[in-house]
C-alpha cells in the first residue's frame, strides 16, 4: 500500500471558520486553571505568539491579540467533511482522530491510499497536481507526505519532506535523523525520552523493543512497529465503515464526488512544491530513474 497523508497543522483555527483578519488571532484551550495557545494566524506568529505559550504571557506580549476557544467538535466535523471530499481521489480514506490534549491539537491529519489511484490520474505528477489544485480551493493549510505506512506518511508530512518513500527500507533510512518531537508522542513519553537522551527517531528505533514496552507500554512499541511496517496487521485488520484501525484512526471506504461536501476555513499558508518518488533509488514523477 502507498499512503498519502494530508497534515493539517492549522486545523484548530481553520475549523472555526473565522473571518480573515490582519490582527493577531489565536486559538486557546484551558488546562486546569491556565489557558494555553494552540495555534495562531500569521499576525500572531509575527507578534511572537507561539503554540503552547501561556495565554497570560501572550497578552503581555501583545495586548491586542484576539482569542477563539478551541473546539474539538469543530475539528472533527471539518475532518469528516474533508474525508467526504477526498473520496474523489481514493476509495480508502482515513480521517485522523482529534486529540483532546491541546499540545497535540496541531497533529490533525487525513490519509488516502493512493496506490490504486495513480494510473487513473496519469501518474504521480498529475495526481499531485490535481490534489493540490483542489486543496487550494478549500483554504486549509496543509503539508503532504507519501509513504508505505500510515505513520510514516504522517511523519514525512509533518517534516515537510516532499519525497515519496515507497519502501519501508527507504523510509527508515530517511527518518532516522529526524527529531523525536516530529512523532507527536504523548507529552509524558516524549519528556521521559528526552531526559534519557533519546533525541532522534533513529535512536528510539534502536532501543530494545522489550525495554520500550516495559518502560512506556506496548502501545508505543506497536506504534513504532507500524511506523516502519513491521506490524501492518494492526492497521489493516478492520474493515467496513467507522471501525477503529490501530490507534487513532477511523476507517472509511467508499466513493464520493467533490460536490458532496462544502468545506470552508480561513486562508493562511499552503505549501507548494513537487514531490519526488524514492525507492531504492530516486525517481522523478514521470518514473524515470535519476540516481
Please characterize this protein's 3D structure:
- The protein is of the alpha+beta class and 291 residues long.
- The protein has one domain.
- 34% of the residues lie in helices and 18% in strands.
- The strands form three sheets. Strands 7-1-6-5-10-9 form a six-stranded antiparallel beta sheet, sandwiched between helices. The protein has a three-stranded mixed beta sheet with strand order 3-2-4.
- A hairpin with a 3-residue loop joins β9 (243-245) and β10.
- α10 packs across α11 (218-227).
- The longest helix is centred in the N-terminal third of the chain and has 15 residues, at 72-86.
- The two termini are 24 Å apart.
Structure in a nutshell:
With 291 residues, the protein is α+β, with helices and mostly antiparallel strands. The chain is 34% helix and 18% strand.
Binned strand content = 15-25%
Number of extended strands: 12
Oligomer: single chain
One letter per element, helices H and strands E, the order comes to EHEEHHEHEEHEHEHHHHHHEEEE
Mean pLDDT: 82
Q: Number of helical runs?
A: 12
| Structural domains: how many | 1
What would you report as the Rg, rounded to the nearest angstrom?
A: 19 Å
Query: Main β-sheet: number of strands, strand sense, barrel status?
Result: 6 strands, antiparallel
- What's the arrangement of strands in the largest beta sheet? 7-1-6-5-10-9
Uncertain parts? 233-291
Measured as a percent range, the helix fraction is 25-40%
Structural class: alpha+beta
Distance between the termini: 24 Å
Shape: globular
Amino acid at each position: 500500500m502507498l499512503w498519502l497523508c494530508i497534515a493539517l497543522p492549522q486545523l484548530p483555527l481553520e475549523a472555526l471558520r473565522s473571518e480573515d483578519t490582519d490582527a493577531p488571532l489565536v486559538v486557546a484551550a484551558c488546562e486546569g486553571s491556565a489557558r494555553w495557545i494552540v495555534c495562531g494566524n500569521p499576525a500572531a506568529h509575527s507578534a511572537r505568539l507561539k503554540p503552547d505559550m501561556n495565554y497570560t504571557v501572550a497578552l503581555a506580549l501583545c495586548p491586542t491579540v484576539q482569542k477563539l476557544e478551541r473546539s474539538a467538535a469543530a475539528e472533527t466535523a471539518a475532518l469528516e467533511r474533508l474525508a467526504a471530499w477526498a473520496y474523489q481521489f481514493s476509495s480508502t480514506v482515513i480521517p485522523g482522530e482529534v486529540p483532546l490534549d491541546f499540545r497535540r491539537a496541531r497533529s490533525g491529519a487525513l490519509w488516502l491510499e493512493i496506490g490504486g489511484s495513480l494510473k487513473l490520474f496519469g501518474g504521480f505528477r498529475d495526481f499531485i497536481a490535481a490534489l493540490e489544485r483542489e486543496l487550494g480551493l478549500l483554504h486549509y493549510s496543509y503539508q503532504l507526505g507519501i509513504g508505505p505506512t500510515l505513520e510514516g506518511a504522517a511523519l514525512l508530512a509533518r517534516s515537510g519532506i516532499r519525497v515519496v518513500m515507497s519502501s519501508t527500507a527507504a523510509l527508515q533510512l530517511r527518518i532516522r535523523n529526524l527529531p523525536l518531537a516530529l512523532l507527536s508522542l504523548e507529552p509524558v513519553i516524549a519528556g521521559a525520552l528526552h531526559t534519557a537522551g533519546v533525541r532522534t527517531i533513529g535512536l528510539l528505533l534502536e532501543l530494545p523493543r522489550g525495554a520500550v514496552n516495559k518502560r512506556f507500554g506496548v502501545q508505543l512499541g506497536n506504534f513504532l512497529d507500524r511506523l516502519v511496517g513491521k506490524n501492518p496487521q494492526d492497521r489493516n485488520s478492520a474493515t467496513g465503515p467507522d471501525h477503529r484501525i490501530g490507534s487513532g484512526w477511523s476507517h472509511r471506504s467508499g466513493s464520493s464526488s467533490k460536490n458532496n461536501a462544502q468545506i470552508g476555513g480561513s486562508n493562511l499558508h499552503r505549501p507548494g512544491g513537487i514531490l519526488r518518488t524514492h525507492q531504492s533509488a530516486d525517481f522523478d514523477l514521470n518514473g524515470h530513474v535519476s540516481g
